[in-house]
Specification:
heterodimer, A: 126 residues, five-stranded antiparallel beta sheet, 29% strand, globular, B: seven-stranded parallel beta sheet, 7 strands
């Protein structure tokens, strides 16, 4: 029987470029809260934003809407890590939807989808 | 790590608007904000009134708590003077003492040079609503960096209009080229709550403007803090801040009240 080595040495694992995709949880805040978009309309809206800021090359950036909750206007987006800055900046600078002001609130960004399940910012301690 | 700050929230007389702005800023994670009063003197009216800042408790009943922290948001007052003529900026005017931060927006090359090297201010605003009428030169910018003055780029014009977007990015990129990314702050010039963006969103925008990763994050946190400390030292005559262990006190030269700066008459 092999003796179990009781000395556990500290082991550090560093992952570089661990995940090819980045995941973003975003919430669309509209001036008029009763307005609702379908998933297709949302994707078209984001592509328009990309086109306005980064042109045709930006609009060609492949991103997916993985989950969309129409009631709360919260979406889970996935994009290649190389396109994260472009997508994020076009979401930030997107200002109006059909002539009313809007704002994209980015709630979480992570290279791992599992990290998006828990959000310490929305933790209620009381 | 320094806390996130947004040093440019436009003042409006509408109380609900300001309170909504402050609540949204606290919800997004900004620990300190500054309400900006713009003052644009024209040569037609020689002695216009410099606006007086409203006390904070008139603007909002109870300061909202910053998300993720236990303290309420800290609100400061700031004055921006849009100078188009050298006589517009009056050094050591007593009205300036009511404001915590002092900013200047120069509109010509000479005024920009004067603002960088001579004026007693904390922030130099780079205009984003028009193409810059002058080019940045390394010499005055390095002089300003040595003195501790920061350069400010506002991003809410980029949200409102696509032509402004081009000007914002162009002017910001030429600024970062000349100053190598040091002493830059990014702030909204938000009039509505929907024009505010979270601190990490602004950090990402900084990458678009040509700042490096570290510089972009500093533009929202530690450089803003540096500007605030510079403003505190500017208010005192001797230029140092001493914190008492019992209470906060700024240094005094002699006597009880801090020595006010006076224009040299000799």
């Amino acid at each position: 029987m092999k003796a179990i080595n009781k000395e556990e040495t500290f082991h550090r694992v560093v992952l570089k470029n661990a995940s090819p995709h980045h995941y973003m949880k975003v919430h669309l805040e509209l001036e008029d809260n009763s307005n609702r978009l379908s998933a297709v309309e949302l994707k078209h809206f984001i592509i328009t934003g990309l086109k306005n800021l980064h042109g045709e090359v930006g609009a060609a950036l492949n991103f997916d809407v993985l989950k969309y909750d129409e009631g709360s206007l919260t979406a889970l987006l996935r994009v290649h890590s190389s396109g994260l800055v472009k997508l994020w900046s076009s979401l930030t600078l997107l200002g109006s939807y059909q002539n009313q002001s809007c704002a994209f609130r980015v709630l979480q960004v992570s290279p791992f989808l599992l990290a998006l399940t828990g959000n310490s910012r929305e933790l209620q301690l009381h | 790590m320094a806390v996130f700050m947004d040093l440019n929230l436009m003042f409006s007389a509408d109380r609900t608007r300001i309170s909504k702005l402050l609540e949204t800023a606290a919800h997004l994670g900004f620990s300190t904000v500054a309400i900006n009063y713009t003052f644009e003197p024209t040569s037609l009216l020689p002695l216009q009134e410099i606006p007086v800042p409203k006390p904070i408790n008139e603007l909002i009943d109870q300061l909202p708590v910053v998300q993720g922290r236990s303290r309420p948001i800290r609100v400061l007052n700031r004055l921006t003077v849009v100078v188009s003529d050298p006589s517009h900026y009056r050094p050591n005017a007593p009205e300036y003492r009511r404001f915590d931060l002092l900013a200047v927006q120069p509109t010509s090359e000479k005024l920009f040079h004067a603002a960088c090297m001579l004026y007693d201010i904390d922030i130099i605003c780079i205009s984003v609503t028009e193409k810059l009428p002058f080019f940045f030169k390394r010499a005055p910018i390095n002089g300003a960096i040595d003195r501790g003055v920061v350069f400010e780029v506002s991003y809410s014009a980029a949200i409102r209009d696509s032509t402004m977007r081009r000007y914002t990015i162009a002017n910001a990129a030429s600024l970062t080229d000349s100053c190598k990314g040091k002493n830059v702050i990014l702030s909204s010039a938000a009039e509505k709550a929907l024009e505010l963006r979270g601190p990490y969103d602004i950090t990402n925008l900084g990458l678009l403007f040509g700042l490096s990763d570290g510089d972009a994050k500093e533009a929202v946190s530690s450089t803003c803090r540096a500007a605030l400390l510079h403003a505190e030292t500017r208010k005192t005559a001797s230029g140092i801040v001493i914190r008492d262990s019992d209470k906060n006190a700024t240094s005094t030269c002699a006597g009880d009240t801090p020595a006010a700066k006076r224009v040299k008459t000799t």
